[in-house]
Design a protein that fits this description.
CATH architecture: Alpha-Beta Complex
Shape: globular
CATH class: Alpha Beta
Radius of gyration: 19 Å
Low-confidence stretches: 1-5
Helix content: 25-40%
Structural class: alpha+beta
Strand order of the largest sheet: 4-1-6-5
Mean pLDDT: 88
CATH superfamily: Nucleoside Triphosphate Pyrophosphohydrolase
Largest sheet: 4 strands, mixed
Number of domains: 1
Order of helices and strands: HEEEEHEEEHH
Number of helices: 4
Length: 166
């Protein structure tokens, strides 16, 4: 059958590449917790991430961040929301879990790693949105319509969260 060898060869190459990537052991793992906040106009809350040397610096992301030693994910989500935005909220259910494996050329450290983000829904959002930032990884927080989100520079976590809304 014409093309069978070509398709089989392509499948074999993909399997070989996948197997080779499986042989790579992560040098680091990061577990984080994020929140999906929506206002009465169905806009979502995003924060702008900044970090020297990080290729995603300047991109918009979900409010949240890495867990501190001994912290539970729900505590991380609440703490990070307040630190980054000045807002407080009650947590709803886990909406999804984002997972991303980074190869050495994709990671800031230059080493392979695994990043896992737990995304919580929120209710009862309260407070004033922060306009001044002392946090060294956040320099802005803003509400965006779903249409506006499509035109901003954003991390893949935001795209994952958008799939949870459909």
């Amino acid at each position: 059958m014409p093309g069978a060898d070509q398709q089989g060869t392509t499948h074999t190459k993909r399997r070989h590449r996948w197997r080779k990537e499986l042989e790579m052991q992560p040098a680091w793992r990061r577990v984080a917790a994020y929140v999906l906040c929506r206002d009465s106009d169905d806009r979502i809350l995003l924060t702008r991430f900044v970090q020297d040397g990080n290729p995603e610096s300047g991109s918009w992301t979900m409010p949240g961040g890495g867990m501190e030693w001994g912290e539970q994910p729900d505590d991380t989500a609440i703490r990070e929301l307040h630190e980054e935005t000045g807002l407080q909220a009650s947590l709803g259910p886990v909406l999804g879990v984002f997972s991303r494996w980074l190869k050495p050329d994709e990671a800031v450290t230059g080493e392979p790693g695994h990043y896992v983000g737990i995304i919580y829904g929120t209710t009862e959002i309260q407070g004033e949105l922060r306009t001044e930032f002392s946090d060294d990884t956040t320099d802005a927080a803003a509400w965006f319509s779903l249409e506006e989100v499509q035109s901003i520079t954003r991390v893949s976590l935001v795209d994952y969260v958008l799939t949870l809304l459909t």
